[in-house]
């Protein structure tokens, strides 16, 4: 149970009810971070607009790399909600979910490409406190992904740090998006 109670549908104002309806249609359930953030409707709307904007704009990197670094960041920060939801998104993209079992030991795994390993090491360095990303990491990633690719990669890792730290601080844990009948939201 989160440290701040969710806003129930019965207590929700019309804008929040609309957000809940859209969330249920899209994900099969209202994501608990949305229901907690609904305690501050202005920030809930700002967050939704931001997430939709990032989703539309982040198209430079392959979806497999985008989802992988976001998932790995969630694992590193032990955000069970993010891991649960991220697994569902990866499954919906038709990506290999089984290889996620080796994400903690990516450097020694043959299930990740060299570029993926570089991106995962960068995600680790960005998630360290303090941040330990190096000039060499950024230069090598720029050589392989281009400037826009490095900016997108950095943005997505930073955004997942935000999500995971928000959820963890407020006690938001996994919601069962990947348990039970495989996914709460049906595959597209």
TrEMBL record:
It holds the Pfam family CMD. Residues 56-124 form the Carboxymuconolactone decarboxylase-like domain. SUPFAM superfamilies: AhpD-like. Coiled coil: none annotated. This is Carboxymuconolactone decarboxylase family protein. It comes from Saccharothrix xinjiangensis.
């Amino acid at each position: 149970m989160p440290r701040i109670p969710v806003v129930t549908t019965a207590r929700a104002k019309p804008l929040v009810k609309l957000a809940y309806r859209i969330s249920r249609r899209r994900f099969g359930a209202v994501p608990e971070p949305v229901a907690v953030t609904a305690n501050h409707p202005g920030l809930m709307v700002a967050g939704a607009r931001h997430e939709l904007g990032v989703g539309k704009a982040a198209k430079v990197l392959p979806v497999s790399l985008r989802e992988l670094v976001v998932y790995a960041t969630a694992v590193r920060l032990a955000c069970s909600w993010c891991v649960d939801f991220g697994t569902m998104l990866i499954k919906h993209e038709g990506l290999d979910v089984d290889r996620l079992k080796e994400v903690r030991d990516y450097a020694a795994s043959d299930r990740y490409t060299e570029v993926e390993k570089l991106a995962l090491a960068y995600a680790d360095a960005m998630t360290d406190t303090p941040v330990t990303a190096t000039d060499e990491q950024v230069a090598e990633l720029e050589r392989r992904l281009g400037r826009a690719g490095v900016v997108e990669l950095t943005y997505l890792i930073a955004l997942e740090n935000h999500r995971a730290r928000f959820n963890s601080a407020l006690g938001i844990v996994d919601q069962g998006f990947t348990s039970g009948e495989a996914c709460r939201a049906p595959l597209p």
